[in-house]
Every structure is written in C-alpha cells, then in structure tokens.
Write a structure and sequence with these properties.
The protein is globular, with a radius of gyration of 19 Å. The N and C termini lie far apart (54 Å). The strands form four sheets. The protein has a five-stranded antiparallel β-sheet. A four-stranded antiparallel β-sheet has the order 11-12-13-14, sandwiched between helices. Helix content is 34%, strand content 26%. The protein folds into three domains: 43 residues, Uridine Diphospho-n-acetylenolpyruvylglucosamine Reductase, domain 2, CATH 3.30.43.10; 111 residues, Uridine Diphospho-n-acetylenolpyruvylglucosamine Reductase, domain 3; 110 residues, Enolase-like, domain 1. Helix 9 packs antiparallel against helix 10 and helix 10 packs antiparallel against helix 11. Strand 11 and strand 12 form a beta hairpin. With 289 residues, the chain is of the alpha+beta class. The chain is built from eleven helices and 14 strands. The protein binds flavin-adenine dinucleotide. The site of flavin-adenine dinucleotide has 28 residues, from strand 2, helix 2, helix 6 and strand 10.
Length: 289
C-alpha cells in the first residue's frame, strides 16, 4: 500500500538543543526539514517535522585553521561566500552553482543535500575531495565522522534517529593544491548523470604529490577511485599517465542503467571527467591555485 505523507506536528525550534530533544523524543516518527526540496518529493511517512532553519546553522566561516559550513546554509548563501571563491574551496562554489535553479538554490541547503544521501548529490564529491568532516549532534553530545564514512548506501547514512547534522568542517588544505568539479546532467539544471571532484596537490618538483578523485552517481555512495589515485601519486601528470588514470578510475565505477543513462555511458563519462578534472586541477595548482 502507498505510504502517506501526513505529518500532524510541525515544530520550529530556535535552538539546536531544542531541535535535538524534539528529534530524540519522536525518534522514528520525526524528520528534520530544512529547505524541503528533497523531503517534500520523498514524502516520508512521518508524524512530525522539525524545521531546522532558525537554529543559526546558516554560515560559512573560517575558524582556527578550519573552514566551517553550517548544515542549514542555503546554496545561494554558499554562492555569496567570499571564502568559497578561493582555491581549492571553490570546488564547493562550483557545485552550488551547478545545482537546480535560483528558486531551489534559495531554499535547498548543504546539509539537506548530504543527508538525503542520493548517489547523484552534488556536494559530497567536493567535500570528500577536501577531506571534510561532519559534526553530528545528539542528546548526549556530539560526534564527528569523515564525509567518506557518512554514506552507507542510497538514502542511508550513519545518522541515527534523533541525530542532527550540524556542521561541515573542512581542514586546512596543503600548499600548491587546486580542485575541480565537473558535472553532466540532462539539462544544466538537472541532477547529475555523473559528477566528479578532483583535488590535486603538486610537489615542488611539479610531480603529483597527492590526488583525491571522487565520482558521484556511479555507485551506491560517492566513490573514491583509489587505484587511479595511487597510480598518479608521486609522478608527473603527463598526458599518457592522465589517460591511464582516467581509464583506471572508469574501471573502478559500479554504475547502474536507469531512465537517465546507461551504465556504459556513465563509465565513459567517468573516464572523460577524470581525465579533464586531473588536467585542469594540476594546471590550476601549477598557476598557484
Ligand atoms: C527541481 C529540483 C532540482 C534539483 N537539482 C539538484 C541538483 O542539481 N543537484 C543536487 O545535488 N540536488 C538537486 N536537487 C535535490 C535537492 O534540492 C538538494 O539535495 C538539496 O540540497 C536538499 O536540501 P534541503 O534543504 O531542501 O533538504 P530537505 O528536503 O529539507 O531534507 C532532505 C533530507 O535530509 C534530512 N535533513 C536535512 N537537513 C538535515 C540535517 N541538518 N541533519 C539531519 N538530517 C537532515 C531531512 O530530514 C530529509 O530526509 C534538486 C531538487 C529539485 C526539487
């Protein structure tokens, strides 16, 4: 039988403590709601919605040596942030700029994009490329997990019922580092058939000191192409090596065929994206980001 979306309770708490205690009280029967652009499409069978847009969790700030993004920050607020125009953080700006249309960007949030855990989501690849962590609140305190560990499967995350994603924390980035985001959707405002974020750090000798290659929509969770990363580490990113790494990354993908694209197309797109993203990121890093 079709599930019904008929919540009877709607709370708009003003503090994170109140929000967390409401989520804990209702457990399985409640869901946080931020922009609602995913939730109102999914229409889960819940009794209670906890609006998290008034908790002061909308900010992009530099604190200590970390960059911090509140979970309720909208995509438009990301695009307004000067901090996210700097290399390599601009990969996150690029991601926001490629999502939805202005009406979606004005309401949709960074945290909602992550917590939906849809394989095609645009923020996770860039955040994983930048080694970001998720700060999670619960009634007994808080915990932090890497964004890579956060995703368990389509629409499945490490969040327990009653937990709230509060903040994304991006650690300081190494020198001579740049990152690139590429995406292909059916149209410019569509969700990704494939997306890719690649971060490259060059050594003083111009060789690739480190690379993080992350692909979306080609596996149940965002995929790190570990074999391709290992292949380029410590070597000059010459055209033949980049081709080989791109081919390797494509072989690491596990895409499905669906109404949007075939698995073969997604594999080929992954190869092309990794080739271009590695080349562009290395070029930007060489020019000083
Ligand atoms: C027309 C349209 C175009 C779109 N285009 C794109 C696109 O190009 N790329 C893309 O990636 N997505 C796209 N989306 C999907 C969606 O807009 C994004 O995923 C958006 O960022 C979700 O944020 P939200 O605030 O609306 O989440 P909501 O719908 O409010 O929440 C989504 C889920 O996350 C949970 N949640 C939200 N915040 C938290 C939190 N802080 N802690 C714990 N759980 C939380 C909710 O309970 C819910 O289960 C599109 C959607 C539409 C309708």
């Amino acid at each position: 039988m079709k599930k019904l979306f008929r919540p009877t309770e709607y709370y708009r708490p003003m503090t994170v403590e109140e929000a967390v205690s409401l989520l804990a009280k209702y457990g399985e029967r409640a869901r946080p709601i931020a922009g609602g652009t995913d939730l109102l499409v999914e229409k889960p069978e819940v009794e209670c919605l906890v609006d998290i847009t008034r908790l002061g969790l909308n900010y992009v700030k530099s604190e200590g040596d970390h960059l911090k993004i509140g979970a309720a920050t909208t995509l438009s607020e990301v695009l307004d942030s000067k901090l996210l125009k700097r290399e390599p953080y601009s990969v996150l700006w690029e991601e926001a700029s490629r999502m939805g249309d202005p009406s979606i960007r004005n309401t949709a949030t960074v945290g909602g994009n992550i917590c939906s855990a849809v394989p095609s989501a645009d923020f996770p690849p860039g955040l994983i490329a930048l080694e970001a962590k998720a700060k999670i609140l619960n009634p007994t305190g808080e915990r932090t997990v890497t964004l890579e560990e956060f995703f368990l499967g389509p629409r499945k995350t490490v969040l327990q019922k009653g937990e709230l994603l509060a903040e994304i924390q991006v650690p300081p980035q190494p020198a001579r580092t740049a990152a690139v985001f590429l995406k292909k959707g059916r149209t410019r405002r569509d969700i990704a058939l494939v997306n890719a974020a690649v971060r490259v750090t060059l050594g003083l000798n111009g060789a690739c000191e480190d690379a993080r290659i992350v692909l979306g929509a080609v596996a149940p969770t965002p995929l790190r192409a570990g074999k391709a990363e290992a292949l380029v580490k410590g070597r000059k990113l010459e055209a033949s090596l980049v081709e080989e790494a791109a081919e390797t990354a494509s072989e690491e993908t596990r895409p499905i065929s669906d109404v949007r694209a075939s698995a073969e197309y997604r594999r080929e797109l992954s190869r092309v994206f990794v080739k271009h993203a590695l080349t562009q990121a290395a070029d930007k890093a060489l020019r000083g980001g």
